[in-house]
What does this fold into?
Amino acid sequence: MRDKENIPKEKEYIALDDQLSVFAGYKEGYPFWSVDMDDAKPINNNRHLNTLRSWFPHRQIEAIEI
It folds into this structure.
């Protein structure tokens, strides 16, 4: 059995849009954006980022590594 230390940890990111809002999770099934950085929910793969970009095609959404 491998040590937990040997398992590579996935990188986590914060999704930030062009209005400086962060992805803060979901509210009533819809993505929620907040201007408060403390509300940011980390995402850990490009698939989630690509989904956010497809839901909000008119927003510039970038991933910031945390």
The longest strand covers residues 22-27. The chain has a mean pLDDT of 88.
